[in-house]
């Protein structure tokens, strides 16, 4: 998707519809949409060539959902260690990811020239 401010909303809407089609339970779906929103916003900040790639995978037994956001930026792989303060207007995205996801991390992307940030959720399945 293009690295535009409107892309986070488009990603949320697309993911919401896909999860509904996959019959992912409501709470897991809501958490996944929030994770996609936060990870997309983060990827948009680091995109250098104007593109980000979002991917979702639901395991064959529908017990695990993996969300990936790929950017083409050269930002370091390690997430920032500074936590947002009470008066800060941003900087809480990865904290939310850490709290909601069953697991998450980042690595060099095999699909772009930047990195991939991923998050996984466990679901009861359809």
Automatic annotation (TrEMBL):
The keyword Transport does not apply. Residues 2-119 form the Histidine kinase/HSP90-like ATPase domain. Transmembrane segments: none annotated. InterPro entries: Anti-sigma-factor_SerPK, HATPase_C_sf, HATPase_dom. Residues 70-90 are annotated as: Disordered. One of its GO terms (molecular function) is protein serine/threonine kinase activity. The keyword Ribonucleoprotein does not apply. Keywords: ATP-binding, Kinase, Nucleotide-binding, Serine/threonine-protein kinase, Transferase. This is ATP-binding protein. It comes from Streptomyces triticagri. The lineage of its organism: Bacteria, Bacillati, Actinomycetota, Actinomycetes, Kitasatosporales.
């Amino acid at each position: 998707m293009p690295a535009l401010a409107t892309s986070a909303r488009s990603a949320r809407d697309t993911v919401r519809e896909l999860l509904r089609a996959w019959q992912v339970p409501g709470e897991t779906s809501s958490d996944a949409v929030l994770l996609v929103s936060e990870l997309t916003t983060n990827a948009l900040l680091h995109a250098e060539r104007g593109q980000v790639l979002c991917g979702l995978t639901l395991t064959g037994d529908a017990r695990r959902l993996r969300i990936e956001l790929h950017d083409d930026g050269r930002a370091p792989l390690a997430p920032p260690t500074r936590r947002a303060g009470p008066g800060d207007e941003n900087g809480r995205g990865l904290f939310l990811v850490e709290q909601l996801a069953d697991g998450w991390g980042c690595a060099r992307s095999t699909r772009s020239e930047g990195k991939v940030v991923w998050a996984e959720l466990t679901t009861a399945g359809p």
